[in-house]
Design brief:
Number of domains: 1
Shape: elongated
Helix content: 10-25%
Number of strands: 5
Number of helices: 1
Largest sheet: 5 strands, antiparallel
Order of helices and strands: HEEEEE
Length: 96
């Protein structure tokens, strides 16, 4: 089950973070919760958002996915991100 879940999470979040593996994956099916800890932000994680900065390095303390297993297809999936630390570099000479 965890290998399948790891594969799904890699497909969904793999463009944004590195470090998704079984060691940092916590699964509680009864609670409808998946938690990933200690992930690294990919330098190109925010490129598609056309922000005026580039991520040089980053860290995500935890990402929690909450869902209702009995109503998975019809109820919302909630994401909770805790503690993002990022080293960014400005892409423009503008003042904020």
């Amino acid at each position: 089950m965890q290998r399948v879940l790891e594969s799904v999470l890699l497909r969904i979040f793999g463009a944004y973070v590195d470090g998704i593996n079984q060691e940092n994956l916590s699964l509680s099916i009864r609670k409808g919760q998946v938690e990933l800890k200690d992930l690294r932000l990919k330098p190109n994680a925010f490129d598609s958002f056309n922000l005026p900065f580039t991520v040089k390095a980053g860290f995500l303390k935890s990402l929690t996915v909450n869902f209702k297993l009995t109503q998975f297809a019809s109820s919302p999936v909630r994401l909770l991100v805790r503690t993002i630390l990022a080293w960014v570099d400005s892409d423009c000479n503008c003042l904020f």
